[in-house]
Amino acid sequence: MSIIEKIKITLKGYDLGNKFSHLPFKPKASVLIPLFLKKGEVHVLLTVRAKQLKHFAGEICFPGGKSDPADNNEIDTALREAEEEIGLPREKVNVICRLVPAITKAGILVTPVVAFIEERFQARPNPDEVSDVFSVPLAYFLDTTDHDRQFLPRQTSQNLQEYLDFFTYQDPETHKTYVIWGLTASFALLVAMLAFGKKPSIVSAFDFNDMLTHFEARLKTYQQSNL
Hints:
Layout: H1 3-12, E1 28-38, E2 41-49, E3 60-61, E4 64-66, H2 74-86, E5 94-98, E6 102-103, E7 109-116, E8 130-137, E9 147-155, E10 161-170, E11 177-181, H3 182-196, H4 211-225
Parallel strand pairs: 1-7
Antiparallel strand pairs: 1-2, 1-4, 2-3, 2-8, 5-7, 6-7, 9-10, 10-11
């Protein structure tokens, strides 16, 4: 069995389907986490937001955005946005799973949709939304050499420590340096941990309960505080 097939089977075991689809968040959003094989390694595709955008200009993220009334579910949102942003045809996307959503500081519920795409896919960035597209080996997020975690001076009502993850990646082909942080970094780290069944190399830097449990606990805390 190939590494791709093994990872697909593993990730499907974490699929939450529409478990959180009923939550009354407005607006909602989805991101597509596109995985593919490159030179024998599993890579994840990322984008750099266009500099002229009003919000989060120049930041690194996954293809995605807010839901549209015409979208049937979180998967539809992720596929539509990926096609609009980087020209990824939805029929060329093999969706594997939906993972537990996270909440942004603005109160937007963001659902990560993990999928596999073809290795030969050539991105066609929409210049109004995306300035660059690149990929990172998924296993990179398990090596904390270029990782930093900043704990924030606050905790949730369930005493969960708030934090931000930062990864500094230098592309060996273009020699460009990318700083991947925040929710994008957390989603990438989560997918890497689930796909490979491993914890980061410096376990002490991640001294908390399982990330899925952590994400769900934060979601419940937000719901309770906004009742």
